[in-house]
Amino acid sequence: MNNGEMAKTVDDLLVVDDLHAHFRVPRARGWGGDALRAVNGVSFSLARGATLGLVGESGCGKSTLGRTVIGLNAATSGTIKLKGEALDGRRTKEQRRAVQIVFQDPFSSLDPRFTVHEIVAEPLRINNCYSPERIDEVLESVGLRPAAAGRRPGDFSGGQRQRIAIARALALSPEVLILDEAVSALDMSIQAQVLNLLKRLQRELGLAYLFISHNMSVIRYMSDRIAVMYMGRIVEIGRRAQVLDRPRHPYTQSLLSAVPLPNPQGRADRKRIILQGDLPNPIAPPSGCVFRTRCFKAEKKCAEAVPELERRDSEDQFVACFFPDNGKTAK
For residue 6, what pLDDT is reported? Predict the structure, then answer.
């Protein structure tokens, strides 16, 4: 299928088409290096005011994808467009302001030497639009009093630090926020507070979120659409209800089977799918379907060809699997 066909939706704000991000990795022995295909042909779109949840195991390329979209990593090939205009290595000041990122660890993403005022002011000064009033405004929007501006990150809890990081990301009035495991380092109760804050900010400001997480419960709460990533590829993508209620790819099925149930006795028919082994070596991935070495549906064909991301029953649910409906179940 045409990657662009899957990538485009109504009211597109951000469109990523056939994106690749490859790195040269030195060999453990001998000379030269090998290619690490961290992002390998990824396509998706993000509408204004919507959230695309990107989920998968650690090491599947989620963070690299986010860093490539914002420009911290260079794309090997493919296109990234914001409002129809290409985002490349020579991004305009307006394009850089429009896409911001919040990292996972609030303890290391904020400079401990700076006051909160200086942290939030830094992107404003770089863009020649510094305003003390703007700093007070964004701090208040994330639930912090203006008096907090004179203190340093070490004076705050983890949840408060992440609010500071969000305020910094909002300072330039972006249109897209990339949230890279933005709540995974927080306690459960604090996670809920920050997630509700993000929901409110999205409603009030019309923000689009690329929400990266390995936690399927968080993805369920935050997302309008969900993309499941494995070994640098999207293996399933669709609306939240489609992916969660009727997962087609065996990897998606395994991730969902691991989500704790509030009343497991009421779901005695649910089977836990235990994947065999670890992620394959990304430098030397399996032939054909990269998931086949851990897949309970794998057949000979899976080693011979790479399955394309193709539309299934629904208009916008896409799955990269030769046998999404062959009836085979996990043992």
Answer: 54
